[in-house]
Design brief:
The chain is of the alpha+beta class. The protein is built from 9 helices and 9 strands.
Amino acid sequence: MSHSDSDEQQQQSHDADFGRALAEARKAKNYSIAQISENLKIPEHLITAIENSNLEALPAAIYTQGYIRTYARFLELSEDDAVAAYNRAVPHDAVSELKPRSSLPGEHSSQSPLVKSVTLFLLAAGLFAVIYGVFQYYQEKASDMEMSQLAEVKVDEQETSAVAEEDLQTGMAEEFTRGLPPEDESDILPDENTADKIVIEEDTAEAEMDEEPAVTPDTLEISAEKGAWLEVYDDTNARLFYNMVKSGQTKIISGQMPFRIKVGNADVTRVLLNGIEVDLSGHTRRNNTAVFTVSERDGNIVYH
């Protein structure tokens, strides 16, 4: 046998014994196979097979490469050297690189910290965008439902009020008719003195009304860019308005200030009191509804 043949056989024998370096490093650090198994969560029989270079007892190459890398890292050995020794011992068609290599110089591996950080950031940003979109959708949905419910309540109140008023008027008329005693025309028609007295009293009342100074009402002007639900009370606690202001519509309301106002879609609704702009931003709730009491004094808006 030639010297070169002997060297080749020794090299092949050394390549086949890929687990010796790991076994020697373990023994040098006074670790038992059981301790290695407990720390790395690798079954003991696989650690024994790696140290004995027993290819038949080991799983597919891609899994074995992962075990060897983990084992070498724990023993503070070169992971690449340990895997390279294993790859030389495995038949060429069974070798599979555990970690893909870049074919371009300077290209980052998918396992690099930079790529992992960028990937995690993109995933977190996408998740945040989805959550924010869902939150905005349900917030708008809730606002629309509230407006719809208020509109339905308004319609029900109007119908109920109209029916009740009609029934009341009908009942009063019938009751009044039944209570009238039979009278002749002389009882119904007033005499001349009574008629003159009525005319004099009416003239006096009109004169007294003319002498009273006229009270100028205060004016609210509400412009709804995208439609808004509106409820307005004045200083006498009379409800002046309770309905929808349609998209693009302007509603003018007269009454005695201060006004108590509740308006939906506040961010796209404009309110003027006696021609002066009312700032709604400080009174707008999270559901985009503004509730406030306001008056005007010497050209300035006063909130109550």
